[in-house]
Design brief:
alpha/beta, Aspartate Aminotransferase, domain 2, 2 domains, seven-stranded mixed beta sheet, three-stranded antiparallel beta sheet, 16 strands, about 35% helix, binds pyridoxal-5'-phosphate, amino-acid biosynthesis, transferase, serine biosynthesis, PyrdxlP-dep_Trfase_major, cytoplasm
Length: about 350
Amino acid sequence: MTSSRPFNFSAGPAVLPEPVLRQVAAEMLDWGGSGMSVMEMSHRGKEFGSILAAAEADLRELLAVPANFRILFMQGGGLGENAIVPLNLSRGGKVDVVVTGSWSRKSASEARRYADVQVAAEGTGREIPRDWQLRDDAAYVHVCTNETIDGVEFHDLPQLTNGVPLVIDCSSHLLSRPIDWSRVGLAFGGAQKNVGPAGVTLVFVREDLLGHALDICPTAFNYETVANNQSMYNTPPTFGIYVAGLVFQWLKGFDYAGKRGLAAIEQRNIDKAALLYGMLDGSGFYENRVAPSCRSRMNVPFFLKDESLNDAFLAESKATGLLQLKGHKSVGGMRASIYNAMSLEGVQALVSFMKDFEARHG
Ligand SMILES: *Cc1c(COP(=O)(O)O)cnc(C)c1O
């Protein structure tokens, strides 16, 4: 089925796969012959139970999550986790944060409310800094593996050799590529970038990190409590989990370049990013300022060298059916977020618009 919808480059909440939206629409009034919308079901009934179980199993399979990790469906978003992680993992002790951009900077300042936080290294937002000053007695090290605003991505997870657990905020590239769980203690991500609607936060936590929450940790945010209650200590975000579950099924069946599932979506993400960065680098009219070794496959900030053309660029791109290309206010310029659900055709359309715009205004 081909779409006539515009291409949506929003950084989040962001584009969802059209087949998923169509299925949600078709099931809106009556899910699976139950006579109820998913929004109207008890979270403890067998219908929602089956939705949650399938979502968790599919997610575990897609990301090859090891058996000693629990998957939690929470609320509070990435910013909520900036508090929930130190409340659960810091034990009131030391936390090292590597600052690679806006989101990890926010994580460091929130964790300061609960722990002794040290910035282990700080980049400019255009690269991953070297020479991390890590403390062997830290409770964990926090990194943001894809800086949504700056467009900086870790293409390999750091291998910490001192046994300190690594916590990753992977909100904006979760499910765009595999995760090397051997290097991770805890991963979290809000759903609204690459996974589903806003309101669901996914947490993957290694079992040995459960059970150390501070007394002041709200019970509903205690990972051990949430895990022991299969994400149903309190009412989970049922509709969002349902939509995310449909996204997982879409991903499992995704075919591209002779590959299937996560490998297929990763390959398409690589191809989309190569197309867009290739055009930017080949142009004297546009530029991306992030070091090539850590450019994000998901969020591509770029600038028109003549910034007086910004308004015209945004107006014309929108009129062409290319939506939400304005950059984050802290960075300026433009940003194209090209998450899993963005097609190759969408990026091709963006690239040809940009070439055409350059020809007319360059
Ligand atoms: C969007 C985002 C957040 C914040 O998510 P909220 O759901 O708004 O709390 C945190 N970290 C990263 C990397 C993000 O992209």
